[in-house]
Amino acid sequence: MANIWATAALWIGLAFLASIISIRLGLSVALVEILVGIVAGNTLGLQTDTWINALASFGAVVLTFLAGAEIEPEALRRHLKASLAIGFAGFLAPFLGATAFTRFVAGWSWPQAWIGGLALSTTSVAVVYAVMVETGLNETDIGKLILAACFVNDLGTVLALGLLFANYDLHLVVFVVVTAVTLFLLGRVTRFVIAAWGNRVSEPEVKFLLLVLFFLGWLATIAKSEAVLPAYLVGLAIAEIFTHHRPLMLRLRTLAFALLTPWYFLKAGLYVSLPALVSSIGLIVALLLVKMVTKLLGVGPLTLVFGLERRTSAYTTLLMSTGLTFGTISALFGLNNGIIDRTQYTALVTAVIASALVPTWIAQTWFLPRTEETPRAPADTAAPLPGVETELVAERATREDG
User: Fold this and answer.
1) Which residues span the membrane (predicted)?
2) Rounded distance, CA 119 to CA 331, Å?
3) Considering only Cβ atoms within 10 Å of each terminal Cβ, which end of the chain, N or C, has fewer?
4) Nearest alpha carbon to residue 327 among 272, 280, 273, 268
């Protein structure tokens, strides 16, 4: 057995290298960690063990929680109709299209095709948020609409993952009931914990949230579901609290990106086989095209219905064609549970990585909206919440979430 400290030093060293590369190239650190994991797995013979798998699982859960918590409730309410319609179409069209392609063209089994559809149905909140901040669109109506639609899109993916692969038995009933009760009470309990014991060196509020995430993750795995499902819902349930307690969000983000998520993304890249990648290049290109075309067909018309100018419509559609975190989570779920093999996993993850790069590059190069093209806010508006420290969130996300 390898020395635990040597193994930890190697993995953290790779994570540090990925951080430096992401800063120098201006790419998402998650994307670079996957790429570094691919190289390390195919050249250094890097492997996982029980404790690395545990840290990687913790990273996926906390990252999913933070993704749900990043959505400003005010922005979601202001753009409710548009975000629900565009986000649902952004999930459903590529899910059905990619499932049909992998089942009837690539010849995968139905469970394998469902994993393919889920992996390609996602959009990348991390990539989109970074682009919004970089361009300043996060302060505009179009930026808030895109972010809200991305949230709805990914929520559809997470819910579908749970529905398709859960065991429908008593364990699932217990999981659903306990999760529902927890989500109903979580806001009040979290406020009490923060008011009574918050801002202490021992970080009781952070430990409380981790307790909730890990407890619901345990129930989810017993029900043969995925721990990221309740994590996303927990993030949404306390998103409004985080708008008033940004330091708590930033401490959790530091914990996630410094200690936990590198294990997950490095591990995700570790399973990508370069020989399989070369032999599957045609399938990879086809999967990327299927995702982009189905996103165009699903999202494009609805953006026009909600009053976006054509240039802005194309920009929105392209950004919603990106994928990264939930795409790799879905593919890794399929691999870990023996639903897809390593060759299929390689094809899916490579297509997902390409979708984080290609649509973003096209959108930023040719379709970046001009200020006068920013659409008016939809009619379904609500008064903004006080204390939303947008600039702090934007600055932090740019530095750490690429």
Assistant:
1) 50-68, 80-101, 113-133, 145-166, 172-194, 206-223, 269-293, 313-335, 347-368
2) 6
3) N
4) 268
